[in-house]
Design a protein that fits this description.
The protein has about 130 residues and is mainly α. It contains four helices and no strands.
């Protein structure tokens, strides 16, 4: 299955959102607890968003679990500045990255559900003639 350019772009934007979140506390300066929590979560988000991008690139389909976890991380990024009460520019950067991550990770998850509902088999489970 060949992925659409939009699906590929969705996965890349989710990765960019996570990287923005992970780098913002380091660049702007943040309290230690916020910095540790958000940077670690951002790097974990990159892993899941990256796995989704890998799946789209390799198999042409996003993964439901990776999309859901990416969206959950995005929601945490939107909420984290409010929980830790950090200042203006840091809140804006982290929430912007979180909104990108949640929206595009969620879209990938919904696309995976749509493929499952249609009965499209996961591409990695379909035999490929070139591998026989």
């Amino acid at each position: 299955m060949t992925p659409s350019r939009f699906t590929t772009g969705v996965c890349v934007i989710a990765i960019v959102g996570c990287l923005l979140v992970a780098s913002a506390p380091l660049l702007v300066g943040a309290p230690a607890a916020f910095r540790g929590s958000v940077v670690a979560s951002g790097l974990l988000g990159v892993v899941f968003a990256g796995y989704n991008a890998y799946s789209v690139r390799t198999y042409g389909q996003p993964r439901l679990a990776a999309g859901v976890i990416t969206a959950i991380f995005g929601a945490w990024f939107v909420a984290a500045p409010l929980v830790y009460t950090v200042g203006g520019i840091l809140t804006a950067l982290v929430q912007t990255g979180g909104a990108l991550t949640a929206a595009f990770g969620g879209y990938a998850a919904i696309e995976a559900v749509e493929l499952l509902v249609r009965g499209t088999p996961m591409a990695e489970n379909v035999p490929h003639p070139e591998n026989d």
